Amino acid sequence: MDNLEHKKYPIGQFKGPKKITDQDLDAHIKTLKDFPNRLKHLVENWTDDQLDTQYRDGGWKVRQLINHLSDSHMNSYIRFKLALTEENPIIKPYDEAKWAELQDSFSIEIKPALQILKGLHKRWVYELKCLTNRDFESTFFHPEQNKKVSLKESLAFYAWHCDHHLAHITALKTEKGW
To answer: What is the pLDDT of residues 127-174, one digit of tens each?
Structure first.
């Protein structure tokens, strides 16, 4: 893997597992549970200059990345709720790159996004812990991917998504010696 590829995917690209066990589900739920505090502790003392640093050439600023996490995870949570209450609903994709250019992603302080993630993940994890194996088989239809996605597959992706973006920020911190 070249350096740019490593900076894009520091923990590797997401590979959907063929089988997701109960132990995998528990580990993914724990990742979601721990994520808001891990992110907060990583960036809580960063200056605006640090937050306005791109994690890689051509990438977002850390500030945009944190706001992206809030946007993305809100969308995922809604997709979970739709899948639990409707039969294979068609979800609404969104242009995450364009969202990251809006002022509430580009220039606002990160505290609101961190607060959203804290509350959102608390609710999300609470709901996840109440689900049965059958519930985890619930699906939504992703029109951009042209496929059904089960909640257990989506959970695996979002656990990866947490670790993926934490790795971006951690690598930048290490690279800059912060």
So the answer is: 999 999 999 999 999 999 999 999 999 999 999 999 999 999 999 999
Q: Could you read off the pLDDT of 85-135 as tens digits, one per residue?
A: 999 999 999 999 999 999 999 899 999 999 999 999 999 999 999 999 999
pTM confidence score:
0.95
Assign domain 30-176 to a CATH class: mainly alpha
Q: End-to-end CA distance of the chain: give it in Å, rounded.
A: 25
| DSSP structure class, residue 24 | H
Domain segments of the chain: what residues?
A: 30-176
Token pair, residue 44, equals: 């809580």
**CA–CA dist 175, 55 (Å, integer):** 10
Structure token digits, residue 121: 């993940």
Dihedral sign (CA 99, 104, 107, 113): negative
pLDDT class of 1 with cuts at 50, 70, 90? low
